[in-house]
Amino acid sequence: MPADPPRSPDAAPIAFIGGGNMARSLVGGLVTGGRAPDTIRVAEPVAAVRESLAADLGVRVFATAAEAVDGAGTWVFAVKPQVMREVCAGLADAAQATRPLVVSIAAGITIAQLERWLGGAAGVVRAMPNTPALLGAGVTGLHANARVDADGRAAAQALLASAGKTVWIDDEALMDAVTGTSGSGPAYVFLLAEAMEDAAVAEGLPPEAARTLALQTILGAARMLTESGEAPAELRRRVTSPNGTTQAAIETFEAGGFRTLVAQAIAAATRRGGELSRAHD
Ligand SMILES: NC(=O)C1=CN([C@@H]2O[C@H](COP(=O)(O)OP(=O)(O)OC[C@H]3O[C@@H](n4cnc5c(N)ncnc54)[C@H](O)[C@@H]3O)[C@@H](O)[C@H]2O)C=CC1
Ligand SMILES: O=C(O)[C@@H]1CCC=N1
């Protein structure tokens, strides 16, 4: 039997407001990392989601945010940008009374907005994780306002580190670019997987073989990218024999404007972050 992970029963309670996909990934990472589940309080209005969080992870669940934040020193806002203003307004009195460390993972929503909606003068960390957090293989960009002290920054970093790597971003204006690169980024790789699989089937491969070939290629390439210490361009060069098959494919990608298209896609996602902020102010 493997040893149980170290437990931290004395850890100060942490509250999640919103118990959807990203919250589940982050809470799962915390529990796997050894945080006592009964120190995690999750507010989630959908009963079925609430019950499955409690059953799967052993965390304490509540129907309302006000109940979940009671006694918690860190509040993680994991609701959609559309409802963030209303959710914050409902907690403003409690925020002013208890001055929690606020962590928001909502795309686009700015620290100034969060402070304003919470009644002013809050220590806020804006974080942008991504779904591989579910496997502990995520990456999160983090930006803190000046009201967050070193302990608060360390606490926020530890929280997100349970989901994977963390990167501090000094300029909050760049958080939408983080969203466009890594927050939305897993979907770009999934799209590539779909396209490779479809193309393989179009070349005559059986669907099951096409999926295995495409997915394992992406996994192997991702591991080489992260484990070899080599630059992506160098790894690509080693696959590309002169006048070989890879060269034929890469020339086709380049002629089709692949790099420009990727840049345009990330720019569109980045712009949408700003639009979400303005639309839900
Ligand atoms: N899904 C992703 O890949 C990523 C999402 N995000 C951000 O995370 C946030 C949540 O996204 P998801 O987890 O994907 O959405 P989701 O829809 O799975 O989860 C949001 C949850 O909030 C709950 N909720 C709604 N109103 C509430 C309220 N008043 N109080 C408490 N909970 C309430 C909903 O019932 C839902 O379960 C969004 O702001 C999104 O921008 C950030 C990084 C990546
Ligand atoms: O698509 C979205 O708006 C969210 C934020 C990053 C990933 N999913």
TrEMBL record:
It comes from the Bacteria. The keyword Oxidoreductase applies. The keyword Ligase does not apply. InterPro entries: 6-PGluconate_DH-like_C_sf, NAD(P)-bd_dom_sf, P5C_Rdtase_cat_N, P5CR-like_CS, P5CR_dimer, Pyrroline-COOH_reductase. Pathway: Amino-acid biosynthesis; L-proline biosynthesis; L-proline from L-glutamate 5-semialdehyde: step 1/1. Residues 14-108 form the Pyrroline-5-carboxylate reductase catalytic N-terminal domain. It is found in: Cytoplasm. Residues 172-276 form the Pyrroline-5-carboxylate reductase dimerisation domain. Belongs to the pyrroline-5-carboxylate reductase family. This is Pyrroline-5-carboxylate reductase. It comes from Luteimonas rhizosphaericola. The gene is proC.
